Amino acid sequence: MNPLRRFLRAPEAIAGAIILVALFAIALSASLFFPGDPQAIAGPALLPPFQDWSLPLGTDRLGRDVLAELFHGARTSLVVGLAAAAAAIAVGAIVGTLAGFTGGLVDEVLMRITDAFQTVPSFLLALAFVSVVGPSLGVVVAAIALGAWTGPARVARAEVLSIRERDFVAGARVIGMHPLEIAFREVLPNALPPVLALSSVIVAAAILTEAALSFLGLGDPNRMTWGGMIAEGRAVLRAAPFLSIIPGVALVLTVLGVYLAGEGVVETTAVRRSLS
Amino acid sequence: MTRSLTLLRRRLVGSVFVLLIVVIGTFLLLEAAPGDAVDAYIASTGGDAGMIELLRHRWGLDQSALTRLANYLWALLHLDLGQSVSFSRPIRDVILERLPNTLLLMGSATALSFGLGSALGIYAGARPGSFRDRFLSIGSLALYAVPGFWLGLVLIIVFAVDLRWFPIGGIESLASAKTGLDRAVDIASHLVLPVSALGFIYLALYLRMMRAGMAEVWRQDFVLAARAKGLSRRRIVLAHVARNALLPLVTMLGLQSAQMLGGSVVIESVFSVPGLGRLAQEAVAARDTPLLLGIILTSAVLVVVINLLVDIAYVFLDPRVGANEASA
After folding, report:
1. What long-range pairs does A99-105 form, CB within 8 A, spacing at least 24?
2. Residue A53 maps to a domain
3. Which residues contact A48 (CB under 8 A, 6 or more apart)?
4. Could you say which of A78, A191, A196, B237 has the lowest number of CB atoms within 10 Å?
5. Which residue has the higher pLDDT, B71 or B39?
């Protein structure tokens, strides 16, 4: 049975995949359905959901269209989640490979730095980084990646430690390849699968961290974010709780979709490996 | 006992190095910030160029970065974190004032997630593959997907605004001036919602780990032996399977402490709990970089201490730990 078919036989994995496909569709179609500025005023303030069908989810405190905000917010969550995870995995894989392959003092120094990063709460680090450099999309991505690369680095190092003893690495040494070339062209690609297995957890955590940062007002001020929407709704928590609840539900569904789909992928590929 | 001491000493030496890296790293990061403490101070109070020069000199900000780092490290050795710009008080005093609230919040939330999480994990793992196992696994994953600050707001809407069971925020009622047991009850009722918001998120972690650990143990020979002896299923689950699966969770407790501390930043802000996390947010808002540096450092020390405690606990819980390292 091929992995795709096995993936499709797990109900949780299908649910996750459907959520993710819907999310991508929403993020990609945001400018299509809501071409204007999502921060523009669209109607009366604090219109409850399901009252006016031109504004199906109602409006916020400033009269902005909640559905349009939601669509544009999906874009930010996805971009930040994917970019931060990609950066964290890239940095982690490189640091882990260098530490594991070189060994000795380099390994010791790199791993103590990894320890240090794991000792500081990653959210606090992100908070400090954004507040020092100033909030923008790139800075938020960097701030989240800063606290997320340590996991991949540890996994990559452990893999590299076992791979570097294999025959093909000795072979590459014999034909005179440069050690760095061996590390990054021979060893790193083989160490990647278990590192990539972490990606769903890292993407999910990145989306949650982005939401928390923008909830505290440290997101990119020029972009719609779900965390920012929740913070905005918090000011009218008694009068219009739906303003905080709707973007939160979107966040929960997104993160759950990432977890479920990720778990499905890891499980199907793990079965394949144990069978072969 | 000596082997655990050897282990502890080795961890302590490592921790000092790690903390040194943390200090230097954060110092460099905050050094990169545009403007310094004097700019922030002048922005809030106003003052002329002469005043700026004077303050820069008095606070040692006119020296080179390396000198200031050395000065900072030297002061740290005397447990002096410097002066807070926004509070105009020693940073150590401000932090020590807020720390107990955060510790209370973190400790209670950890107890909740560890206790309930491992109990539900045992319940799920007792019958692997059953309906309740699948239900709890998926349910806990859904809970893990919930942003803590949002769960906090939902709890406020339901239990503080609609039902009025618990106060909406803060750590205790200010005007009441309660003492003794009354005060404890008052603080506890303020803590119910924030502790739930923080604790329920991480519950999934312990539940899933317990369950996965038990799945491993079920396959081991001694479980078969216990069955062959004719022990009751209940006894096998509790005394043999769960007991052996519990140890990795204790390690997780230490690893998780940094996460918990990060999570409490947002939770404290949602519930207006005057703790370390809210202080961090106030420091960010006031551009008080020395205070932020002090908070980050305090958190790092806290994480290191918790992990050391976990290591010590581990030595008592698992007699195999450290046996090799002491003989080596």
Report:
1. A99/A153, A99/A157, A99/A160, A100/A156, A100/A157, A100/A158, A100/A159, A100/A160, A100/A161, A100/A164, A100/A191, A101/A160, A101/A164, A101/A179, A101/A182, A101/A183, A101/A187, A102/A179, A102/A183
2. no
3. A58, A240, A242
4. A196
5. B71
**A57 lies in a domain?**
no
CB B167 within 8 A of CB B173: yes
Taking CA atoms, what residue in A is nearest to B276?
A124
Mutate to test the interface with B, among A117, A132, A146 (most CBs of B within 10 A): A132
Is A267 an interface residue toward B (CB < 8 Å)? no
Q: Which residue, A57, A49, A220, is CA-closest to A139?
A: A220
| Chain A: closest CA distance from residue B301 (Å) | 8
Residue A215 lies in a domain: yes
Indicate if the pLDDT at residue B207 is higher than 60.
yes
Do the Cβ atoms of B284 and A204 come within 8 Å?
A: no
* Tokens 């499905």 belong to residue: A264
Chain A residues 189-228 with CB within 8 Å of chain B:
204, 208, 211-212, 215-216, 218, 227
- What would the DSSP string read from start to end of B137-167? HHHHHHHHTS-HHHHHHHHIIIIIIIS--S-
Q: Find out if CATH 3.20.20.140 is the number for domain B92-317.
A: no
Question: What integer best gives the mean pLDDT of chain B?
Answer: 82
Write out the two tokens for A241: 């709780």
Establish, for the pair of chains A and B, how many residue pairs have beta carbons separated by less than 8 Å.
Answer: 132
For all residues of chain A together, what is the average pLDDT? 86
State whether the Cα torsion A261-A81-B24-B282 is positive or negative.
negative
Q: Is A270 on the interface with B (CB under 8 A)?
A: no
For B195-206, write each residue's pLDDT tens digit.
Answer: 999 998 888 888
Q: Specify the long-range contacts of residues A108-111, CB closer than 8 Å, at least 24 apart.
A: A110/A153, A111/A157
Nearest CA in chain A to B305: A119
pLDDT for A270 equals 63
pLDDT attached to residue A143: 94
pTM for the model? 0.87
In a domain, A29, yes or no: no
DSSP of B156-207: IIIIIIIS--S-SSSSS-STT---HHHHHHHHHHHHHHHHHHHHHHHHHHHH
Asked if B150 lies within 8 A of A251 by C-beta distance, the reply is yes
**What is d(CA B250, CA B241) in angstroms, rounded to the nearest whole number?**
16
* DSSP 8-state assignment for residue B129: T
Q: How far apart are the first and last CA of chain A?
A: 12
CATH of residue A231's domain is 1.10.3720.10
| CA-based nearest distance B25→chain A, Å | 9
**For residue B280, which residues of chain A lie inside 8 Å, CB to CB?**
124, 127-128
Domain boundaries, chain B: 92-317
The DSSP bridge partners found for residue A65 are A59
Which range marks the domain in which residue A128 is found? 76-275
Of B29, B142, B262, the CB nearest to A129: B29
